[in-house]
Each structure stands twice: as structure tokens, then as C-alpha cells.
Amino acid sequence: MDLARLRALRELSIRKTMAAVAEALYVSPSAVSQQIALLEEEVGIDLIERRGRGVELTLAGRQLVDRVERILVELESARADIAELKKVIAGELRVAAFPSVAAALVAGTIHDLHRMHPRLTVQFDEMEPAESLAALRSWQTDVAIIDDLNVPPGALDPNIETIPLMEDVFNVMVSPKHHLAGRPTVTLQQLRDERWALDTASSTYTKMISDACQAAGFTPNIVARCKGFEVTIALIREGYGISTIPGLRVSYDLEDVWVCKIVPEIRRNISLAFRKGEKRSPAVQAFITQVNERVGARRRLPTIEEVVSKLEAG
Fold it and tell me: 172 is in which domain, residue-wise?
């Protein structure tokens, strides 16, 4: 059986529509449909059935996908074995990560790897955690950086391994002229009457903020829903509202705003995810080592409280 056709069937079991599979595999929907049709002709039995705008796998289709999962895992394990024997960090490594961790950690890590291992090419794709995990399951990336807000531990595929990378603490970002500017910490209750501008690239992130405010006894007055950090921070600088910001973003591009910690803290755990058996790959190991170096360097940076203390002392 043709491996490309088997991959298309596996993708269909995850994504449910020909269009979504086509986008993931960088082919046309008609090409995906043709691959599935050829596979059905080859095995002599229906593998999918139409359900509205999507498709569902038949019993035969599900059984075949179960076998395909094991075949693909073995293929990746074989590649890792060969790469380990060669002891050469070369080839291509595909990495997916969400914007804040990509800017704070991944960009520098990729630069380090290029300098240390010139025969290794790192291909980066910016993706939200759930999207990058789907790309990992479908062999569209090799390493995904995820968090436990968007990908709860129970949602992980059994063929995916994770290792903890770091904790990230959320902060409040206000205009320098705001009445809270100058304070190292604030409580959510102090923010109940504020106007909120939120980056809505991740619906889970927006829900987390809303739930935290609800738990503090109020519903946040969201006056702006932005699809990127640039617009959010522009609104804050103009004094139109306030926002939250991950600790990962605090170290850069924050002129003309004031950042203070929320108490009690709102945290998320960030992890590296990869397919089982691929941790032995020299390229994956090199990435893990270098990104952890970057995390260690961040831990040595001064905290917000230390910065405020120095400003007050000066």
C-alpha cells in the first residue's frame, strides 16, 4: 500500500474534511479525494463515508489507521536509530511554536543551532499549541512547543512524549499614565472597573482571563479583541485600556508601557512535545539542549520587582 495514501487517510481521521487534510499536506482537496479513492480501490472496501460536509471513517478505515499509526512510529524510530548511529547533526528539523515562546526562546535557539551545526536546517512554523500538536501528530513538524492552557495533559496522543520546559506567569500591562503604573503587583479585584484589550489569537487564553476575573467576582469589560500583539500594545500605550501579557513577552518590545504582576499568580506550564522514540534523534536532542540553555539564561534576568526596586533606588 502506498504510504502517501495511508498518510492521507490518517490525516482524514484527525481533521474530518478533505479541505483540512489538503491544507495540512499542501495538496489540493481533489488530490486528497483521489488518494483515498485509490486506496479504497486497492484494499477493495469502503474506508470513509460522507457525513454532511465532513467524512467519518468506516470500521475498516479505523482499523487501517490504527495499523498506519504503528507503521509511521516504526519508520520514525528507524530514522532516529540511523541518525544516532551517524552521530551527525544534519538534515532538517521542523519546529512549531506559539508567538510569545517563539520570539522569546525559539528565535535565539535556531540561531544557536545554525552557528553550532551548520549542516542542520531548522524549519520554523508559528502555530498555536493545539495546531502545532496536530501538526506533530500528522508528521508536519518534529518538535512542538505547547502549554497546558491550550493542550490539557489528558488531551495528549499516547504516541506523543513531552518534557517540561518552563513555567510562565501572566502580568498586567498598563499605560505609564495609568493610576496603577509604578506598582510591582496588582490584584484582579483592582482591575474590575478597567477596560480590557485582549489578544484573541487563542480562544483558550481569552477564556482563562475571563474565568479568572469571574472567580474574582466580576466580568471583564472587553472593549477590544485583537488578533495580534501589535494592536493590543498600541491600545495600551494610548491609554484606552489594559491587558494581560505573558512573562515571556516582558523582556522585549515594551517601551512606553508599565508591567506589573498579578497576585495571586496566574501561571501556565510550557512543554516540548515530540513523537515517541524521536528524543534519540541528534537533531531533536540538540534543540532540547539549546532551548533549555535559553530558558536558563532567562531565569538569570532581573525580575519585575528587582527592576522596580532599582528604579526607585535611582
Answer: 168-268
Kind plus residue range of the DSSP H or E element containing 245: strand 243-246
Burial group, residue 192, by CB count within 10 angstroms (0-12, 13-18, 19+): middle
Rounded Cα–Cα distance for residues 67 and 74 (Å): 11
Segment (H or E) for 81:
helix 59-86
Where among 79, 96, 127 does a domain terminate?
79
The answer to whether 147 touches 162, Cβ cutoff 8 Å, is no
Q: Classify residue 310: in a domain, yes or no.
A: no
Q: What is the DSSP string of 117-157?
A: -TTEEEEEEE--HHHHHHHHHTTS-SEEEEETTTS-GGGS-
Question: Average pLDDT for residues 175-196, to the nearest whole number?
Answer: 93
Are 222 and 261 in the same domain? yes
User: What's the confidence (pLDDT) of residue 303?
Assistant: 52
Q: How far apart are CA 60 and CA 62, in angstroms?
A: 6
Q: How crowded is the C-beta side of 167, counted as CA atoms within 13 Å?
A: 4
Q: Read off the pTM.
A: 0.72
Please count the structural domains in the chain. 3
Give yes or no: residues 172 and 264 share one domain.
Answer: yes
Asked if 234 and 173 sit in the same domain, the reply is yes
Taking the C-alpha atoms of residue 4 and residue 233, their distance in angstroms, rounded to an integer, is: 44
The arithmetic mean of pLDDT across residues 105-111, rounded, is: 95
